[in-house]
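In response to the reviewer comment on reproducibility (Comment 2.3), we provide here a single inverse folding case reported in full, input and output, so that an independent group could reproduce the run without further information from us. The structure tokens appear first.
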């Protein structure tokens, strides 16, 4: 009999997960979903799996040079299953309250200015959370069945994985090598200062 472990996972657009896995994206911009409106987004965990979701993603929200990937992602919806391939550790988190600063960060994420501006205006009393992530690709994916309680506009879910699958966290490789990650991180922090 195998024992199960609950692991935190952050729900994120599947296309953003792809960009994180490719090293094209190193930041997340979060305010929180409808279910988190009053409190806003809370960073509940500093290490977590990324759970790719197809909810709400659209071509109109993605930078033109990356939007073609949405067609590929949309075809990956596999009979109620999801493959989790990346794990993230939070390097830094900052609150951003003006759109001008956000526009300087567009090189580090895939969302276009129109979408970022719309998210900035959503729940205007709350700042945007900019989270720099160190992303790791696991040596093999964790394949799970999607539970109905995970649907909806919430950021965090808990995923039950086997003890053997937890060993995958020990065998992962960074998406960006140390030099490339530290360079991107220092440039982002420069923009914010």
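Designed residues, in position order:
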């Amino acid at each position: 009999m195998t024992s199960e472990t609950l692991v935190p996972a952050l729900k994120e657009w599947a296309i953003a997960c792809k960009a994180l896995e490719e090293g094209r994206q190193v930041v997340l911009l979060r305010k929180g979903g409808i279910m988190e409106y009053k409190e806003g987004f809370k960073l509940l965990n500093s290490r977590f799996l990324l759970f790719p979701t197809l909810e709400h993603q659209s071509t109109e929200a993605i930078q033109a040079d990356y939007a073609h990937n949405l067609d590929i992602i949309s075809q990956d919806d596999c009979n109620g299953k999801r493959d989790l391939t990346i794990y993230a550790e939070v390097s830094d988190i900052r609150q951003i309250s003006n759109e001008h600063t956000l526009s300087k960060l567009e090189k580090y994420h895939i969302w276009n200015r129109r979408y970022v501006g719309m998210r900035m205006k959503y729940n205007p009393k709350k700042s945007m959370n900019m989270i720099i992530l160190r992303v790791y690709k696991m040596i093999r994916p964790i394949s799970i069945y999607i539970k109905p309680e995970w649907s909806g506009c919430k950021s965090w879910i808990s995923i039950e994985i086997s003890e053997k699958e937890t060993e995958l966290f020990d065998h992962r490789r960074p998406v960006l090598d140390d030099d490339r990650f530290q360079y991107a991180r220092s440039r982002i922090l420069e923009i914010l200062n």
